[in-house]
Amino acid sequence: MRVVLAEDSVLLRAGLIRLLTEGGFEVVAAVPDAGQLLAAVDAHRPDVVVVDVRMPPTHTDEGIRAALVIRRQHPKIAVCVLSQYVEERYATDLLSVETSGIGYLLKDRVAQVSDFLDALRRVAAGGTALDPEVVAQLLVRRNDPMRRLTPREQDVLRLMAEGRSNTGITEALKVSHSAVEKYVSNIFAKLDLPPTDTDHRRVLAVLKYLGT
């Protein structure tokens, strides 16, 4: 898989290039700012972009705003935000533009390199990878509809938004598969979301809920 990396820290950028290369990715460009990121994406059309939120010149929100531009101009290119911060406003915008091929991971909470690489592969393949802290902060913004859900249904929704399958939720909550199916069905009903035949739509519906 071909990657364009945007990270302004020289040392971190070099480290990520090495990790990605050793993990089987091809880093076709590694740039220090949002302007060069957009140019690199136009030139290389990668499978996935890895971008920090805060980049030069102001170190505020240039990176994630560039991610929004990429999703609008190149909707088939996956985007994984890798940052120290949860930029709630833009994270919500990013998730509401297109929910497949999206990741938002927090640097300080990546415990294993293998977990990061697996999450990036999932995003590049059209899946979703969200840090639980990102999900939690976005759910706080949507607190009123959440009152319809029981505490257990909220747990299931959080895990769904992280990109977990029914099997993953079963393992995380130590409940039966049938119980998870019931919780998922209740969530869709209480959030006025139409039924679907595809598993991936569960995650898309949750992210649509978070982003609307």
Q: Overview of this structure, please?
A:
The chain is of the alpha/beta class and 212 residues long. It folds into two domains: 2-130, Response regulator (Rossmann fold), CATH 3.40.50; 142-211, Arc Repressor Mutant, subunit A (Orthogonal Bundle), CATH 1.10.10. It has helices at residues 10-22, 34-44, 62-73, 88-97, 113-124, 132-141, 143-146, 151-161, 166-173, 177-190, 200-211; strands at residues 2-6, 26-31, 48-51, 78-83, 102-106, 128-130. A six-stranded parallel β-sheet has the order 2-1-3-4-5-6, sandwiched between helices. It is elongated. The model has no long low-confidence stretch (mean pLDDT 84).
Tag the structure with descriptive keywords.
about 210 residues, alpha/beta, Rossmann fold, Arc Repressor Mutant, subunit A, 2 domains, 11 helices, 6 strands, phosphoprotein
In short:
This protein is of the alpha/beta class and 212 residues long.
Biggest sheet details: 6 strands, parallel
User: What do we call the CATH topology of the largest domain?
Assistant: Rossmann fold
Kindly report the spatial arrangement of strands forming the biggest sheet.
2-1-3-4-5-6
What is the domain total for the residues?
A: 2
Structural class determined from secondary elements: alpha/beta
Percent of residues in beta strands?
5-15%
Mean pLDDT: 84
Say how many strands there are: 6
Shape: elongated
The CATH class of the largest domain, by name, is Alpha Beta
